[in-house]
Amino acid sequence: MLNQIQKLIVIVGCQRSGTTLTGQIMGAHERAILLDESDGLYQWFGEFQLGKPQGFEKLIAKANTKYRSKHSRLENDGHKTLKKGVDCLVLKAPNLTFGFEALATLDYDVRIIYPIRDPRAVVASMNKLGHIDILAKQIASMERHAGIHAEFSDELKIFGNPETPEHIWQAHIWRIKSSIFPCFTKVGLKPFVFRYESLIENKREIVRAMTKHCGLPFDGKMVRHEFIYQGEGPGKINRSRSVDDASVDKWKTQLSRQQQLEIMEIAGDLARDFAYNFEYQN
User: Fold this and answer.
1) Is 269 helix (H, G, I), strand (E, B) or coil?
2) How many CA atoms within 13 Å lie on the side-chain side of 184?
3) What does the alpha-carbon distance between residue 64 and residue 34 come to, in Å, rounded to a whole number?
């Protein structure tokens, strides 16, 4: 089954920056199947890059359950094989943001998609995920990459201080993970970088550009992806809910003015590069 895959589309960047939505959009393409973290993606990928791609059939079978039956990516022949024409594996994998060197060595056509979101919105969204130890996962991910570990050693000290307020370390995580995209270009994997807010405002335009970057023809089902999926996705997202702008400005009521100021002191330079303004809400 793995022999059928020709292209890997990898969604990286900072958690809570639209990686789930982007994954669902790309995974709705008729030639693609979406692998989420909850499908066992990271464990499989670790073995895959070592040339031990065991368990791919089981992984795909689990991934396929997120698709409505009429949009199944598997042949209906009892053998759980991919449908003819499904040759793109979409990895919704923000924890592969530091894995640019490993991704560059794969003998596949690898395309990188890299959403960026307002750091204040990301911090506010992280605060709602108290059941997930985001900090521990990011530290572990950074420690697996010597160059990243050395480059951000000062931040790791901040992460290791139990007295560091949550919004402070969350802002540092945003700054680190939203700034790695040039590393992909250096290893020959130029990423498609875009603002999450632009995707919400101009969905069809961004999806067309994203699809072109991945070397795929535009598929209209991508902009109506809520009709392709079923069930619950990462972060307890309802996969069948259409995209709206309800979450774009929620941070304005979820963060205090002081928190906003402190977040932008840490993330401001990079945020300004992406045209995020310095408006503060009381």
Assistant:
1) helix
2) 24
3) 8
**pLDDT tens digits, 8-30:** 999 999 999 999 999 999 999 99
CB atoms < 10 A from the CB of 263, how many? Answer: 26
Contacts of 207 (CB under 8 A, 6+ apart): 25, 199, 218, 222, 223
- Give φ, ψ of 244 to 5 degrees: -140, 175
Would you give the DSSP letter of residue 224?
G
Q: Which residue has the tokens 């402190």?
A: 262
Residue 280 lies in a domain: no
In a domain, 281, yes or no: no
Q: Is the pTM here over 0.85, yes or no?
A: yes
Domain count, the chain: 1
Query: pLDDT tens across 132-142, in order?
Result: 688 888 888 88
CATH number of the domain where residue 73 is located: 3.40.50.300
Tokens 């089902």 correspond to 221
Q: Report CA 251 to chain centroid distance, whole Å.
A: 20
Domain that residue 131 falls in = 2-273
What are 227's two structure tokens?
């009709």
Burial of 213 (0-12, 13-18, 19+ CB in 10 A): middle
Is residue 88 situated within a structural domain?
yes
Question: For residue 140, which phi and psi values (nearest 5 degrees)?
Answer: -60, -40
Q: Could you tell me if 110 and 10 are in contact, meaning their C-beta atoms sit under 8 angstroms apart? A: yes
Low-confidence ranges of the chain (pLDDT < 50): 131
Q: Is residue 282 part of a domain?
A: no
Residue 85, phi-psi category: left (phi > 0), alpha (psi -120 to 50), beta (remainder): left
Q: Which residues of 40-79 are buried (b: 16+ CB within 10 A; e: fewer)?
A: ebbebbeebeeeeeeebeebbeebbebbeeebebbeeeee
Q: How far is Cα 94 from Cα 176, in angstroms, rounded to an integer?
A: 12
